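Quiz preparation item.
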């Protein structure tokens, strides 16, 4: 197996982190809870605070406390606070329970639409991903605006001309019509069907990892939740982009978890790990969840069926000390030239 590209999953801490430590703004809570972003803290100066230059909260003149509660998911899982609409950042924090954002399918490219980072669109037969850029990605052609776009999957080759169909039966003799004017030269016949290009299939799985399946020695990966089964790889040009994540907490003390992408041939029991680094971290907060995420691209032997999904191993004899909130996996099958 050959891995074309590996993007390491980000590990998010369950407790918010404050930068810098000597700031006058103190963040006591920064997390995703019940579908909203919650940010709370105190400030010994100022009247208002802005969050990511988008939301504003008033600082209580007596308690000096402030609070944000918004339906908002920061792309990088970090937030920045500014005092009284100042241009300098007063405090920055990581957001707990915040999973990384994946690709966002936007259909065919349109000059009238504004795109943001990780939007995916199709243009000129290829698939394109919007890149991070401080400018406005509007009416920026994917084929020329390389500062705004990168090619995710190239256009496939033109298919072969189709076979000639059988001749139909001879019809009855018609009446002789008047002679018509000489016609123009006819247009060239149409080309056969277009070959495969871009994204072929897409799968998404949610579930809760079964800790009873974990290896008690902590040495071997197992599928933590059901994989996507029976994926057919028909040619060497077909690849799999896999993104997986989980959220968990440890009941007692600190114990480590490792998240990876694994595969096996359908109908077999031998599990193979994707090349590259795993997503790894310690879980030690019994009241708040931490997250792990892993992304990779797989190139598998063609003409076979495969099971692909997240695989997990935990510190020896610690599996039953974890509580899992979710495990999510998305798989994109695409074609490269």
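Solution:
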């Amino acid at each position: 197996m050959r891995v074309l590209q590996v993007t390491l999953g980000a590990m998010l801490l369950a407790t918010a982190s404050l930068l810098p430590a000597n700031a006058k703004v103190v963040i006591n809570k920064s997390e995703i809870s019940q579908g909203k972003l919650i940010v709370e803290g105190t400030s010994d100066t100022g009247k208002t605070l802005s969050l990511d230059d988008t939301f504003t909260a008033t600082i209580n003149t007596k308690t000096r406390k402030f609070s944000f509660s918004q339906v908002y998911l920061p792309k990088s899982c970090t937030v920045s606070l500014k005092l009284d609409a100042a241009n300098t950042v007063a405090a920055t924090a990581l957001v707990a329970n915040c999973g990384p954002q994946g690709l966002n399918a936007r259909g065919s490219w349109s000059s009238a639409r504004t795109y943001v980072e990780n939007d995916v669109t199709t243009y000129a037969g290829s698939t394109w991903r919007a890149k991070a850029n401080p400018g406005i990605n509007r009416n920026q052609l994917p084929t020329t605006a390389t500062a705004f776009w990168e090619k995710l999957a190239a256009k496939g080759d033109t298919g072969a001309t189709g076979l000639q169909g059988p001749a139909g039966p001879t019809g009855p003799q018609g009446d002789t019509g008047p002679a018509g004017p000489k016609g123009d030269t006819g247009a060239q016949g149409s080309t056969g069907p277009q070959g495969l290009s871009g994204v072929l299939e897409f799968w998404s799985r949610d579930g809760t990892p079964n800790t009873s399946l974990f290896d008690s020695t902590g040495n071997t990966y197992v599928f933590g939740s059901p994989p996507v089964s029976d994926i057919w790889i028909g040619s060497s040009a077909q690849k799999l982009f896999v993104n997986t994540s989980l959220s968990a907490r440890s009941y007692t003390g600190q114990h480590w978890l490792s998240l990876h992408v694994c595969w096996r041939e359908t109908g077999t029991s031998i599990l193979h790990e994707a090349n590259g680094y795993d997503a790894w971290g310690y879980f030690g907060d019994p009241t708040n969840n931490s997250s792990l995420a892993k992304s990779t691209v797989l190139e598998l032997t063609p003409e076979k069926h495969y099971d692909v999904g997240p695989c997990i191993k935990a510190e020896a004899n610690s599996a039953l000390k974890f509580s899992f909130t979710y495990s999510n996996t998305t798989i994109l099958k695409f074609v490269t030239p």
